[in-house]
Structure formats: structure tokens, C-alpha cells
Request: fold
Amino acid sequence: MKSQKEILIIDDDSKNIFALNAVLNAKKYRCVSALSARQGFQLLSDNKNIGVVLMDMMMPEMDGYEAIGKMKSDEELKEIPVIAITAQAMTGDREKCLEAGADGYLSKPVNVDELLQVLQQLIP
Reply:
């Protein structure tokens, strides 16, 4: 039996990480998390078992748009699907996230059923 891919949650708010982690663990997903994009990239380079990234779009230092761009231009990371998660659920945001290279888009507060649906599509 092949080991299940892990989900990397990158969010500068630990409460968001905690909530997503709790929901996903309850559904038998394994998660790792980072409080910044820089930390996330460190985890991505150390852990080859990450199958999908949940990326907060509004973070200090490096925001999600920049982080997704960096991932998609990296030979080793570009195949890992990224789901953009943002509280800025305004008209055009979804398109902006997808144009930046995100493979999926969810607005906060995250709808658990929607999240699980997107994950099922992205994690084989």
C-alpha cells in the first residue's frame, strides 16, 4: 500500500492552520504546516511526500501569488497542485489566483465539503 501524500498548509495565522488541520485529520489526511511561504519552501525541499499545498494568499514577506509563481517556475515543485485560500473573496479574485498558477481556489471561511471535493480531484 503506497503511503498517502501529505497536505502542506501555508498560512500566517495559526488558528487557520489549526482549523484546517483538525478538519483534514478527521478525514484521514496527513498534514504539515508552515507559518510563512519561506517556511513552506523549506518543508517542500525537505519532504518529498507533499501532494498538495493549501496556500494562504495574504501573507507578509512573500504572499501567495509570489509563492505560487515561485513554485510553478521550479522544476521540482511545479507539478504539486496548489489550492489558493483567501479571505479576499472579491470579484476577480478567483481568476487572479488561477492566473497566478493556482490549481484550485477557496475563500475563507473554508467550506469543508468544497475543500474535500477539490482535494479528491487533485490527490490521486
Summary: The radius of gyration is 13 Å.
